[in-house]
């Protein structure tokens, strides 16, 4: 696998246990909003048994002019994440492989519900940044963003997107019953006229897929992105 060199520009805490890493874009490198890649940090050794690479979604869109990923780093974390948290600094090199996958809106749909939990927000940040420059009027997008502690990563970005984009609205939730209740309310009102993008842990994705299926939503209208590296 070929890696390209990017230079770290900024390391920022974006929630109580989540951090973003912003980098330069290697010359000739390109990606699409919603894709994920493998990252590597040269010059540091991880502990025995740990991997020296991680797959993270690119949280930035091409329109940003920079590469960015974000990840959750709890009190107990791997040696790879310890390097991210405590050792690398702006000016250091982070290596990035070629982008993979596809996750985004169906251009034939005029309604979309985004169901997202915690640091699963990273592909959604990329997709909605792209939408700010290329949104097709009439495509109504509603987002339910759940974070148990109320500290929603990239929360300010989505508040600004809500204010700028007439067709986009976001609700920040903290309680599971509110999260599932609002999902059910939307699905009952819009059915298969809408598509449903789910971005969260495997357990969250499975639970919401089951809920939507039981409400009569077709599998073809359910799109999942199971985030890595959290």
From TrEMBL:
The FAD-binding FR-type domain is annotated at 1-106
Report the GO molecular function annotations.
oxidoreductase activity
Q: Mind telling me which Pfam families this protein's record contains?
A: FAD_binding_6
Q: Which Gene3D superfamilies match?
A: Nucleotide-binding domain of ferredoxin-NADP reductase (FNR) module, Translation factors
Which protein are we looking at?
FAD-dependent oxidoreductase
Q: Which organism is it from?
A: Baileyella intestinalis
